[in-house]
Design the sequence.
């Protein structure tokens, strides 16, 4: 079955950039939406951005508008999250997950969650 693996996290200074990758194995995800989510310490999980199979994007978190972008390369079975102008508030574990054809507003509509990758923004 489809399995997703996140990578690219790490420690970065405020204002810096990171590019996260979500790579699928077992089955291609070209026909499904992929969402990025994050969970900060002591906080609930929140959606960040989502992208459909056709490349349409949905912004979940207003706090990342203009700073984060989502893209996908179906040939590589990979979805990217480019994070620029990072802030300490962006510190969280970032997850990707498979949706349906659409970018649902509910995390319950997503499956095949990856293990997450830690992003820490600190000076």
Sequence:
């Amino acid at each position: 079955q489809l399995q997703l693996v996140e990578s690219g996290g790490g420690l970065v200074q405020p204002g810096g950039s990171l590019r996260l990758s979500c790579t699928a194995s077992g089955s291609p995800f070209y026909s499904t939406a992929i969402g990025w989510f994050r969970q900060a310490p002591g906080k609930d999980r929140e959606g960040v951005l989502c992208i459909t199979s056709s490349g349409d994007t949905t912004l979940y978190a207003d706090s990342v508008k203009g700073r984060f972008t989502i893209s996908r390369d179906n040939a590589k079975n990979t979805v990217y999250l480019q994070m620029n102008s990072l802030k300490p508030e962006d510190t969280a574990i970032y997850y990707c997950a498979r949706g349906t054809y659409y970018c649902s507003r509910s995390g319950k509509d997503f499956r095949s969650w990856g293990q997450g990758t830690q992003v820490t923004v600190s000076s």
About this structure: The chain has no helices and ten strands. The first strand starts at residue 3 and ends at 7. Strands lie at 3-7, 10-12, 18-25, 34-39, 46-51, 57-59, 68-73, 78-83, 92-98, 117-121. The chain has a mean pLDDT of 95.
